[in-house]
Automatic annotation (TrEMBL):
This is YceI family protein. InterPro entries: Lipid/polyisoprenoid-bd_YceI, TTHA0802/YceI-like_sf. Residues 27-191 form the Lipid/polyisoprenoid-binding YceI-like domain. Belongs to the UPF0312 family.
Length: 193
């Protein structure tokens, strides 16, 4: 699991809605067409295998005080894609994510903190394979703009690293060929509801 360093005093500590151009409190819905939920795991200690999940929903609730905001997301496990059908089916199987029994992964934030520079840390609970563990996302606000028909949009990038074994994802004999650490990267675009 990722250990979370204590944040230092930064610009994010004093960030308010007024200091972020385009910041609009409200509920922002994650746009699946312009969002990617990606992961990478080491294979045989020498290369990374990368993949993504194609079906998910989520929302970001921006508060007047950014540090009082929240994030939630639900991912459909069966939508995993590594560009290799046999491998994807194996990941969905009982040896890995067991999509038939645990069809969804979820993340619910429990708090937002100032991070380094202008960044933020989103503490929360991640549920994978029926196991819930605390996880911290390193969150970067890319910015705000106007989308289709001038609808307000926002962009975020979030990263974290988890231990697959901590979530009970061992992978059987195949798991011995894979690293324990899973790097997760989320490139998110959301629109104001």
């Amino acid at each position: 699991m990722t250990t979370t360093p204590e944040p230092t005093a930064t610009a994010a500590t004093t960030t308010t809605a007024a200091t972020l151009p385009g910041y609009t409190p409200g509920t922002w819905v994650i746009d699946p067409v312009h969002t990617e939920i990606a992961f990478a795991v080491r294979h045989l200690g020498v290369a990374n295998v990368r993949g993504r999940f194609d079906q998910f929903t989520g929302e970001i609730v921006l508060a007047e005080n950014p540090l009082e905001s929240s994030v939630s997301a639900t991912i459909q496990v069966a939508s995993v894609s590594t560009a290799h059908e046999q491998r994807d089916n194996h990941i969905r199987s009982e040896e890995f994510l067991h999509a038939a029994e645990f069809p969804e992964m979820t993340f619910r934030s429990t708090g937002i903190r100032a991070g380094e520079g202008d960044g933020f840390l989103a503490d929360g609970e991640l549920t994978v394979h029926g196991v819930t563990r605390p996880v911290t996302l390193e969150l970067e606000l890319i910015g705000f703009g106007k989308g289709y028909q001038d609808r307000p949009v926002a962009g975020f990038t979030a990263t974290t690293q988890i231990s697959r074994k901590a979530f009970g994802v061992t992978g059987g004999a195949t798991g011995a060929m894979l690293g324990d650490a899973i790097k997760i990267t989320l490139d998110v675009e959301a629109a104001l509801a």
